Predict the 3D structure of the following.
Amino acid sequence: MIRTLAALTLIGSLTACGSASSTPPPEQATQADLTLTEIADGLAFPWGIAVLPNGDMLVTERDGQMRIVRDGILDETPIEGLPDDMLILRQGGLLDVELHPDFVSNRLVYFTYAEGTEDENLTVVARGALKENGTALVDVEDIFKSNVPGKNRGFHFGSRLVWLDDGSLLVGLGDGGGFRHEAQNTENQFGTIVRMTEDGGVPAGNPFDGQEGADPYVYTYGNRNVQGMVYDVERDRIYAHEHGPKGGDELNVIEAGTNYGWPVITYGENYDGSVISDETEADGMAQPAVKWVPSIAPSGMVVYRGDVYPGWDGDLLIGAMNGPEGQKLVRVDLDEAGDVVGVEDLFDGEGIPFRDVEVGIDGHVYLATAELDGRLFRLDVAQ
């Protein structure tokens, strides 16, 4: 399996298969072929994008609003009906958004947000039905609240939502920022990916369900702060990446019950340069498929399926926010089996912090930026 292979290490702009700026084969889209077309601005720290069946897009703003982009134009009026008790604090606020797999029939929109106070806060999964005219969510309800007792910092809420083909929902949760030691404790949900039913219950098959003292929702643990996750239907693989501290960002293949090592093993260090752990490997702990040193602060991620960008079908696209060198769009080249064969940096040096990445119904990639005056771009192929 890919997680047992030596990780592809990125130090600066170099990759295990050569420089990230190496010229790919001519049948593959390169940065010279690409342009960014701005289709909206004025978004307050956009965080998540969900593409509606008609091509319109829902966009969350971290300050607590959800907006809709209709026919490429941002509606100035926020969507009504969201919870009024969101905690807008540092990294907390309104976060990811995803449509229910049967959205066409039930209109359900799922979203995550931070709740509580600076002294006690957590991540919530909620859902509501989007009105046909797209102006409001109705019948909004919380279906899940994370088990992170004593979390008293406004950091590391995780929050990416991913549907699996069995109808269950994965949610990436962070270690809370000051609770790294708890990421190895399966009795709570610090530093985990959890799996739930569409109603927020515990589904059959969770790896720790039924074990004395273990949290039944836990799917994986030892994760620092998962902010990008996708399910590749064609390969039947789950990929997730997580923020390291100072260096040590990771891309992992996700398998139920696996320990991804944080903070016992890490390729990063504390922000002040002090050591977190002297170990980078340990028995029973998975190795990343790719690790980044220094950190790029990876965020949204998508597996691209389509032919708009030659040679990209089946590859991962990851937004990165850490400036100045880390702000870029990263393409992870995957082979037919889904193993990493190379990494390419795009738009590096242009100072654009890409927060989320999604594919529209037109086959184009759309990117939201992590900025106070956030923008939404479409990735076009130059003619």
Observations:
- The two ends are 40 Å apart (CA to CA).
- The first helix runs from residue 103 to 106.
- Residues 1-6, 11-26 have pLDDT under 50 and may be disordered.
